Fold:
Amino acid sequence: MNMNKTDNKQNNPAPAKAISRLNKGMHPRNLHNAGYDFEALIDCYRELKPFVSRNDFGNLSIDFASPKAVKALNAALLKHHYGVDDWDIPQGFLCPPIPGRADYIHHIADLLAVKKASKSQIPKGNKISALDIGTGANVIYPLLGVQSYGWQFVGSDVDPVSIDNAQQIFARNPKISRKLSCRLQRDPQHVFSGIINPDDRFDVTLCNPPFHASLAEANAGTARKLTNLAANRAAKSGQKGATKPTNIDTAVLNFGGQKAELWCDGGERQFLHNMINESQLFASQCLWFTTLVSKKENLQPAQAMLQKLKAHEVKVIDMHQGNKITRILAWTFLTAEQQLLWQKYRELR
Structure:
C-alpha cells in the first residue's frame, strides 16, 4: 500500500504553486521580490478571491485595470506581509502599488545606515523619526516604515479626508497606532512650513510629489496606463484590434486620485522647487530630505537649485523595476561632522 501511494505521487506530482512574478531590480530586502503568492494572499484575505483568476500563462493574477481588484490586492499584501488589518481608502483616492513604495522605504533605510566596525547598521525602532509629506488616505509609507523598521512617523496632507482616513487605519491597528501622528497642512502653497514645529527633529523626510500640472493631464496619464494594460493583455493573448478598455472613463475617475495626490499648479517641477526652497529653512531640524522624482527632466533643475542653496551633500538613488526607473533625490545641509553628532544624539533619545 505504501509503495502504491509513492508511485501515485511520482506519476501525478502536485502542480507547482503559481506565483505571479514581478519585474527584477527591486531592493534586496523588498518582501515582494519573489512576486505575488496569490494562494497565500487569498488564505490571509478572503475578499481577494473573487478578483483572482488564471491568466493566459496559467498563473494566478488579477485585472490590474480594475480599481476594486487592485485595492483588494493592496489590502491582502498589507495584511499578509505587514500585519495591517482593515486597510481601506475612500473611492476615488490614490491606490498605490505597494512593491514600489516598499523600495523607497528600504533605500531610505540604507541612506540612514550607520557604519559601525566597518559594517553598515540599518537603524530600527522608535529613535528614527520620519516625516511623510502628502501621506494620503492610503498612508502607505508610514505603514511600510513602521512595520518594516519600527520607525515613528508624522504624516502631513492638505486634505482633511486623507488625514482622517490615515488616522482611522492606524486606529484599527492598536499595535502600531502610537507610531503615527497626522498634521493638516492648511496652506497648500507650503510644504514644510506649518508642519515642522520648532522642537521637531526628523531623521528623514519622504515625499511622492504630484507630478501632473492639471486634472486633464492627470486623467490623460491614467488613461494611457489603462490603455497600455489593455494592449499588453491583448498582445499576450494574441488578440488584435482595439485595445482601449471598455470601462476606461470610470476607471480614470477611480484611479485618478485627488488633486493633491496627482496634480498641482506647475506640476512636479514646481513642487520640487517649492520643497527644496523651503527645506533650507529647516536645515538644522532634518538630517536628510528626500523625494521621488518621476520625470527625469526635472532632476537637473532640482540639483542646480540645491547647489545654489549650498546643500552640503546631494544623492540620487535609482530604483529599478523592470524597464522603469524612478529616482530618489536626497539632500542634507549638515556637514559630515554634524551628521555624526546627529547620530550620537539619536542614540541618547
Q: What stands out?
A: Residues 102 and 144 are 6 Å apart (CA to CA). Residues 215-237 form the longest helix (23 residues). Residues 1-16, 239-243, 248-259 have pLDDT under 50 and may be disordered.
